[in-house]
Specification:
mainly alpha; 264 residues; globular; single chain; two-stranded antiparallel ribbon
Length: 264
């Protein structure tokens, strides 16, 4: 799970989104605001969101994969901050993430915020108290559009488990946030672990081949194509972790220090 760029939209499209958001924000009653957010997003302009989806695809760079699991092709517009609890971000394009049809329903409206030293589970709070405004914006879930997930998450390459685990010790807020995000998205389901293991083998082979070709004087245009292919391989977190853990894992090539561009 990596940091994802916020999609870039034209000024007219931003104004259209802002106008829709203004309709929602103008409603005083919170429950009515939430219901209007759901209604307006359900009736969103098709042409506008065709452009939004294209912008999300462009923001994904060379590889269009789910912003959460990195395994499946991204094809759904996800609100990182759920519109059911944060209607003020319904038409905020900096809250849009391109994800797959497995991760989107897995996360759904699961969301917690920090308030007075405790985590408040928003779906549970609604069942108990009804439609009340969330008490804070201090999120438990890691927002890949606004944060660096790898500052809280670690992919275990060293022990070859290929599981995503918290970096920080149990009992810390950082550990709690990491664990919540991992559990919410089911990032360690068996198919993802196996896919990361296969990706690691593939990255090692491609990197080894690249370094050999560079040492043998291959043309720069061909080396650039090899780099492009590396960036289009699914599970880019594996490649980023190989760079971060380069001093503790088996190096993909004895001369890797002369070709660190494979991790750019």
């Amino acid at each position: 799970m990596l940091t994802i760029a916020v999609c870039e939209l034209s000024d007219p499209d931003k104004l259209t989104l802002a106008a829709r958001q203004g309709e929602i924000d103008g409603v005083v009653d919170f429950e009515a605001r939430v219901e209007l957010a759901k209604q307006l997003f359900g009736d969103k302009p098709r042409a506008l969101f065709t452009r939004v989806r294209a912008a999300l695809q462009a923001a994904a760079g060379d590889l269009v994969r789910c912003g959460y699991c990195e395994d499946s092709c991204a094809d759904e517009v996800e609100h990182v901050w759920p519109k059911s609890f944060f209607p003020g971000r319904t038409f905020d394009h900096s809250n849009y993430l391109f994800v797959c049809g497995i991760c989107n329903p897995a996360k759904n409206d699961r969301f917690s915020v920090r308030h007075e030293g405790n985590w408040v589970d928003l779906p549970a709070q609604r069942k108990t108290l009804g439609f009340v405004v969330p008490p804070s914006f201090d999120a438990r879930f890691i927002d890949p559009l606004a944060e660096a997930p790898l500052e809280l998450l670690w992919l275990d390459i060293l022990e070859k488990t290929f599981m995503v685990v918290p970096i920080f010790d149990p009992g810390t807020l950082e550990h709690d946030r990491a664990e919540f995000t991992i559990d919410t998205l089911r990032l360690n389901r068996e198919c993802l672990v196996e896919a990361r293991r296969n990706a690691y083998t593939g990255f090692r082979d491609r990197i080894h081949r690249y370094v050999d070709c560079k040492l043998n004087g291959e043309a720069q245009s061909l080396l650039d194509q090899r780099l492009f292919e590396l960036r289009r391989t699914p599970h880019q977190t594996v490649r980023m972790e190989m760079r971060r853990q380069i001093d503790i894992i088996d190096q993909p090539h004895p001369n890797i220090a002369n070709a660190l561009e494979v991790f750019d």
